[in-house]
Amino acid sequence: MVAVELRDIVKRFGEVTAVDNVSLKIRDGEFFSLLGPSGCGKTTTLRLIAGFEMPTAGEILIYGEVQGYRPPHRRPVNTVFQHYALFPHLTVYQNVAFGLEMQKVPKNEIRQRVGRALELVHLRGLENRRPKQLSGGQQQRVALARALINRPKVLLLDEPLGALDLKLRKAMQLELKTLQHEVGITFIYVTHDQEEAITMSDRIAVMNEGEVLQLGTSEEIYERPANRFVADFIGETNLIPGRVGSLGERPQLHLPGGAGLPAGWAQPGLRRGDAAVLSIRPEKIRLFAPAAAPARSPASGAVEISGRVEQAIYLGTDIRYVVRIQGDSSIVARVQNTGQADTLFQPGDEAVLCWKLEHARILKE
Ligand SMILES: Nc1ncnc2c1ncn2[C@@H]1O[C@H](COP(=O)(O)OP(=O)(O)OP(=O)(O)O)[C@@H](O)[C@H]1O
Ligand SMILES: [Mg+2]
């Protein structure tokens, strides 16, 4: 079942196009993230779904119903913002109960529902504290409880962990994910933190300049980026410049020096001779001393290219090698620090880089 559908949504503020023709479907019960850099239109998209903004064009459906000009309080959604906006003079209990009291829900029912919501966010026992007597993470949980108590079908979360320090953020990421599982509500989660989106989401829409550039599971987006922006924004990648050689089942990128690097995929629309980049993630690369490089037949599905180690950076769990190859490109390889002699290189050493064809993708420049 589809929980929220955006059909050709455009939102302009004067000259600025904040959301540029976005269509997507968010499934019922899904943890869905909108991910992208500052200003790409994430908050605007969320506010359109909530009904705080009206689209310039296109329509939004929630559980199959066109929302039109329906105001926020008449939509089956609730929003948690980055700045929790708790009432400072009210206790935790009163903050969470506030909405229900306004709706004149019977006292007994309020007590039950507040109790249940506070239990969900692990705040039982702190009912009588005021916001300033709570940590940032606890305040954020009060905001969550307050949003959950109305039993929204869809919860919209706009960088809800943005104000927390790294450690608390990590802990809250896990809690939020567990909570979402428990309550079975659709979460639409906005973040500019790619690691956060990857850890928490069932699916992610990667946005830039108002457009959705790729939509898929964490794994799809990380392993099979559809374009240069996504490859670069999610994780770390090498983008080796060259020109498209052949296309077809085994496309090739020609380096400026002339050598061809085969890849597993080329972005649709590329033509022979076009300037392009080959994307390969540092951890997908293995390094061998020239004498130790395994002999491979071209059919083995692996790519080899030789180079010279320029830098070796010790990272504890990994060693990061910068290797210069033909055509003057530097490639970063991240090699697990197993302590084995055959994984250790010094600047100046000759080395052979090796990766699987399927991990290399030719993308538009
Ligand atoms: N009310 C407004 N009036 C004019 N321009 C706006 C308004 N709201 C947003 N914008 C512009 O629309 C674009 C998208 O803004 P939005 O807040 O959706 O970005 P975002 O992806 O949430 O960014 P951030 O990660 O910084 O929160 C930006 O260029 C922003 O300046
Ligand atoms: Mg925002």
Uncertain parts = none
Number of domains: 2
- As laid out across the biggest beta sheet, the strand order is 6-7-8-3-9-10
Largest sheet: 6 strands, mixed
Overall 3D shape? elongated
The ordered H/E elements are: EEEHEEEHHHEHEHEEHHEEEEEEEEEEE
Hetero groups in this structure are: adenosine-5'-triphosphate, magnesium ion
**Would you tell me the overall average pLDDT?**
92
> What is the CATH superfamily of the largest domain?
P-loop containing nucleotide triphosphate hydrolases
CATH class of the largest domain: Alpha Beta
Judged by helices, strands and strand pairing, the structural class is alpha+beta
Q: Please name the CATH topology of the largest domain.
A: Rossmann fold
Tally of helical runs: 8
Give the CA-CA distance, first to last residue: 38 Å
Share of residues in strands:
35-45%
The percent range for helix content is 10-25%
Number of strands: 21
**Rg over alpha carbons:** 25 Å
